[in-house]
Each structure stands twice: as C-alpha cells, then as structure tokens.
Amino acid sequence: MPEKKELSEEELNIRHAEKMHKKKEARKKILATKTIEKGLIIVHTGKGKGKTTAAFGMIFRALGNNLNVAVVQFVKGQWLSGERAALDKFRDKVKIHKMGEGFTWETQDRARDIEAAKKAWEKSKELIADTNNKVILLDELNIVLRYNYLPIEQVINTLHNKPKDTHIIITGRNAKDEIIEIADLVTSMELIKHPFRSGVKAQVGIEF
Amino acid sequence: MPEKKELSEEELNIRHAEKMHKKKEARKKILATKTIEKGLIIVHTGKGKGKTTAAFGMIFRALGNNLNVAVVQFVKGQWLSGERAALDKFRDKVKIHKMGEGFTWETQDRARDIEAAKKAWEKSKELIADTNNKVILLDELNIVLRYNYLPIEQVINTLHNKPKDTHIIITGRNAKDEIIEIADLVTSMELIKHPFRSGVKAQVGIEF
Predict the structure, then answer these.
(1) Do A28 and B105 form a contact (C-beta atoms < 8 A)?
(2) Which family is it part of (chains A, B) (predicted)?
(3) pLDDT recorded at residue B208
(4) What value does the mean pLDDT take over residues B111-129?
(5) CB-based contact A115:A90 (threshold 8 Å)
(6) Which pLDDT value is given to residue A2?
(7) Cβ separation of A37 and B12 shorter than 8 Å?
(8) Does A114 touch chain B if contact means CB atoms closer than 8 Å?
(9) DSSP code at position B206
(10) Which residues of A touch B104 (CB under 8 A)?
(11) Are strands A185-193 and B185-193 parallel, antiparallel or unpaired?
(12) What pLDDT, in 10s, does the model give residues B14-27?
C-alpha cells in the first residue's frame, strides 16, 4: 500500500488498532472451536538444528508446571553435560533412560546397536504405559526407525494405544511417513545458515 | 540397492561398520578445520512451532553449564508459567526483562507498543554490553522489527559490535534480511501438521 507513507502517526495508530482488534476477535473465534483435550504426539524432524533442543524446552516447561517427565535417548552423545545438569535440578520429576552404548559412527557395530535399540524401546513402552509420566521424549527415535532397527508397526501400535493424556515427543531427522501420519503436531527444522561453513567451532553452552 | 535383500545379517553388519567408519573419519576431518571460537548470533524463524521453545532449551543448557543468561521478552503473553517456574530454579543466573504491556492484539495500541519496544531495546543493549551475560535471548525481536517499531540499523549496529564471546539468540517469524545476513546460524521452523486443525485445545505443559 504505497499511500501508507502519507499517513500520520495518529492515522497509523488508528489503523493498527482496528487491524489488531479484528485479529483478536478472529483468534477468539478459532480458540472457541478447540475443545478436545488430549495428550499429543509431537514430532520434530528436518535437517536443521533445534529438534532435540526444542523438545528439551518443552520438557523444562512441563517440569516448571510440576508434571512428571521421562526421556529416552536413542542416540548416544547427542546431549551435552548442560542438559543433564539442568535436568538435575528437577531430579525427582525426571526419569532418564540412555540407550546402551549409543550408535552410528561411534560404535560401528550394527548388531549391538540393534540390541540397544530394542532395549531402549522396551524401556520406552514401560514409561509410556506408566500414566504418572505426563510428557515423554523419545529422543532421536526417528534415526533408529530410519535404520530399521525397530519394527515400525510395533512403534505405531504403541503410539496408537498410548494413555490418552500422555504427550509424546519424537525427534530426529527423516521421520517416517507412518510417524508423521500418527502425529498431531509435526514441525520441520530447516537449516538456513550454519556457522560450520565459516569455520566456527562448536562450544560450551551452545551446541550445534 | 535391490541386492540388499539378499545379504545376510552378518554381511549387513560388516557393510554397516565400513560405512560408519568412513562417516566417522569424514566427520573428524571436518571438525579439525573448525577452530574459530566466538559468540554466535542465532536466529530461529519460520511459521512453525518451537522457535522460542528451542531458544529456551539453549538457555537451560547454558544454565546447566553454569553460564549467566539474560532474556528480553519483546511480545507479552507468549510464555507460559511453566517456563517462568523452571527458570526460577536458576534464579541467581538469570536476568529477565519483560517488555511493558506487550503488544499486538492484546493491546491494540500502536503508540504504546512502540514506546515499550524502545524500552525493551534499551534494556537489551545494556544486557548485551554486560559481558557477564554469556547467552542473551531476544525473544520475538523479529516481530517488533517486522512492524518497524525499532530502527533496524540500530539493532544491526548493536549486534555487529556485541562482545566477542556473547551468544545472542533472536526469535520470531519473518526475520528481516538484515538479521539473517548478520546471523551465524539461522533455522527456520516449518509447520508440517498442527493439532488445531483437528480441534485440539492448547493445554498445560504443552503449548502451541
């Protein structure tokens, strides 16, 4: 709208108020139609950063709300000591399960990785079945599924039959179609710009 | 590779080990070239969920690493009590600044919003100048810039002259080109699937 430049500050303010009022009303209407409360299946996928970090943000928010949470780490070495140390502040509210020796380039041992994935999945099922756990993070589960270390049908079946109020967050790039299909909320983190391109090292506090 | 189906588990394991070994070596080489350590400018943008949540994940990680952090909230009402409560566990390490009465549909008062944005920006400059603050979150700054409530040149100038070791995280959709230009790491959160489409209500612990 090129005529905008000719408007006075006061006119701009009035227009703004009108526009924002309309937005507010529209939002109210939308929210009024949303009445189902249930635990959600949330997926963070994509090649960009922030999949696990955003999941941890949700975990900390849930902890702040005094909910019990559980975390299963399907890929070793992805977390920094910082996350651990921060979770330690909420020790009585958090259950953490680390998958055996982890996997991929660090182990180079496929048979052992499959074994570890199966154990971590058994643990996940237990944690999901326990309705005390209100938010459960299955960190990097997508990676394990992508390598076909777990039968996808079993995972989908467990997700399908999860306790109604439990939220489950699944992270990892290359989420399988079946996972996206069963999820309520799917976000893809896309990389636009990365400091590694310009020779910057990963460092304490911030991790890429 | 259609012949994959005919390989035995043992052959699959050997192939896997070879492939992963190569990956590991390649990764080592890349990491060896990354030697610059500096505070980064990190941007979370896009229309999807997780921009602020991932930033909070980084804040909690930094807190776990015993770093001082500061948060300026440019848009009111975006945080839930959960975040607040979780941050309270690290009270001595966190500085939080809330921007006046907040902005957009909640206030519908453009003049007051501009005033509040300016104050929050003054506070941000102070926090950035204080080298005790190692990680600074300028939450939803992009929104304020998009509405032209702050002169972009001033913001870029401050970011350009930030203390070398300070990490700054900027969130909000529609990041301006100038912000992307000066950033080291930019991630765009893209919405793939949203529960509001199917009538599910936002709720405690999980927020959309």
Answers:
(1) no
(2) Belongs to the Cob(I)alamin adenosyltransferase family.
(3) 37
(4) 92
(5) no
(6) 47
(7) no
(8) no
(9) B
(10) 20, 23
(11) antiparallel
(12) 888 888 788 777 77
Instruction: Return the pLDDT at A51.
Output: 93
In three-state secondary structure terms, A201 is: coil
Q: Which residues pair with A170 in a beta bridge?
A: A43, A138
Contact B201 A87 (CB under 8 A): no
Nearest CB neighbour to A49, from listed B20, B30, B187 = B187
Q: Does A148 touch chain B (CB under 8 A)?
A: no
pLDDT in tens, A104-126: 555 668 888 888 899 999 999 99
For residue B193, the one-letter residue type is K
Strand arrangement of the beta sheet that strand A135-139 belongs to: A94-98, A69-73, A135-139, A167-171, A41-45, A185-193, B185-193, B41-45, B167-171, B135-139, B69-73, B94-98
* Burial per residue of B78-88, b for 16 or more beta-carbon CB atoms within 10 angstroms, e otherwise: bbbebbeebbe
Q: Which of A146, A115, A76, A108 is nearest to B12 (CA)?
A: A108
The answer to whether the beta carbons of residues A140 and A52 sit under 8 Å apart is yes
ipTM (interface pTM) = 0.74
Is A161 at the interface with chain B, CB within 8 A?
Answer: no
Q: With an 8 Å Cβ cutoff, are B180 and A191 in contact?
A: no
In this structure, what token pair is assigned to residue A35? 């009445």
Chain A residues within 8 A of B48 when measuring between CB atoms:
187-189
CB of B152 within 8 Å of any CB in chain A? no
Q: In whole angstroms, give the CA distance from residue B95 to residue A91.
A: 24
Q: Point out the residue among A44, A61, A105 whose CB comes nearest to the CB of B23.
A: A105
Residue of A83, A110, A162 best to disrupt the B interface, most CBs of B under 10 A? A110
Tell whether the model's pLDDT for residue A135 goes beyond 80. Answer: yes
